[in-house]
DNA sequence: ATTGAAATGTGGGAGCC
DNA sequence: GGCTCCCACATTTCAAT
């Protein structure tokens, strides 16, 4: 991970479909070594994939909700079981294990409040071992960034 | 936005560097109309860009913090001013305006706690109009998804 | 060992039907 | 929505530093 690698990562976070030629020019390399570095970054798991960024509103996902979950037990098994269950919920875009009371924080997307209610009833609350839930609704996203602040 | 459009969006969220040929086959179209749909989806702002997905740990961003911000005033001007200020903070990956007490929720990434402290002192707390802050630390990400649950 | 250059096969874009 | 041509790109091989 030298400076050129960081430049590659930064450029591809900004434009994931950039051609190797453009990328090579941007980082000051010829295409061949640039492509090789790209392969290496993928093999090493630095770059885990490529994704189209989509406007959730345009696809009908008008609602973003943050759900705080407290488990009845906070041991390893309980957390692992919850993690396996939450991985199967496509509406959960992010899920973080938090410090403190070892709460869990979810970012959930839904088409509307009815759909979110259905998610709560039929999905989240079906997971055993949940002590309580607290939902906080987002009015809108002010910032949604996909580029880590990589220094170059 | 018909079923094929949704298939295109879904496929490109899963693999943003997929070629138009592969995409066309996947959605059951020939390449030309597939490329035309792709252009339209971009012009319409459904697809807003493409991005490489990166492992934050591998780039040294080991810390994720959620910061709740309460403003002194919650009127339009105060919120707009905060939004302009927060857009200039590269460490802020997400920022949502919340319901209720019109709190603001930030997801911040940092290299370590020292760097996060510097962000708090030199960046966030320099923004005027903040009544109080509350930081919650993530131990780890259980789920980090980039694919919206688009039905096809 | 890592870069740069050249050749080949494959993909993308603009016209047409 | 599908087809064809042309150019540009990616990938592989080879030579050079």
From TrEMBL, chains A, B:
<dbReference type="InterPro" id="IPR036390">
    <property type="entry name" value="WH_DNA-bd_sf"/>
</dbReference>
<dbReference type="GO" id="GO:0043200">
    <property type="term" value="P:response to amino acid"/>
</dbReference>
<keyword id="KW-0805">Transcription regulation</keyword>
<dbReference type="GO" id="GO:0043565">
    <property type="term" value="F:sequence-specific DNA binding"/>
</dbReference>
<dbReference type="InterPro" id="IPR011008">
    <property type="entry name" value="Dimeric_a/b-barrel"/>
</dbReference>
<dbReference type="Pfam" id="PF01037">
    <property type="entry name" value="AsnC_trans_reg"/>
</dbReference>
<dbReference type="InterPro" id="IPR000485">
    <property type="entry name" value="AsnC-type_HTH_dom"/>
</dbReference>
<dbReference type="InterPro" id="IPR019887">
    <property type="entry name" value="Tscrpt_reg_AsnC/Lrp_C"/>
</dbReference>
<dbReference type="InterPro" id="IPR036388">
    <property type="entry name" value="WH-like_DNA-bd_sf"/>
</dbReference>
<dbReference type="GO" id="GO:0005829">
    <property type="term" value="C:cytosol"/>
</dbReference>
<feature type="domain" description="HTH asnC-type">
    <location>
        <begin position="1"/>
        <end position="62"/>
    </location>
</feature>
<keyword id="KW-0804">Transcription</keyword>
<keyword id="KW-0238">DNA-binding</keyword>
<dbReference type="Pfam" id="PF13412">
    <property type="entry name" value="HTH_24"/>
</dbReference>
<protein>
    <submittedName>
        <fullName>Transcriptional regulator, AsnC family</fullName>
    </submittedName>
</protein>
<dbReference type="InterPro" id="IPR019885">
    <property type="entry name" value="Tscrpt_reg_HTH_AsnC-type_CS"/>
</dbReference>
<dbReference type="InterPro" id="IPR019888">
    <property type="entry name" value="Tscrpt_reg_AsnC-like"/>
</dbReference>
């Amino acid at each position: 991970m030298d400076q050129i690698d960081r430049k590659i990562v930064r450029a591809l976070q900004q434009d994931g479909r950039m051609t190797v030629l453009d990328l090579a020019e941007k980082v000051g390399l010829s295409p061949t070594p640039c492509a090789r570095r790209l392969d290496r970054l993928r093999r090493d798991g630095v770059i885990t994939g490529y994704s189209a960024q989509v406007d959730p509103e345009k696809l009908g996902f008008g609602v973003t909700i943050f759900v705080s979950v407290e488990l009845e037990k906070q041991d390893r098994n309980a957390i692992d079981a919850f993690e396996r269950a939450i991985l199967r919920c496509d509406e959960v875009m992010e899920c973080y294990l938090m410090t403190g009371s070892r709460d869990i924080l979810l970012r959930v997307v839904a088409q509307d409040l009815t759909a979110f209610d259905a998610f709560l009833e039929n999905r989240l609350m079906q997971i055993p071992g949940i002590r309580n839930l607290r939902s906080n609704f987002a009015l809108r996203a002010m910032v949604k960034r996909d580029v880590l602040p990589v220094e170059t």
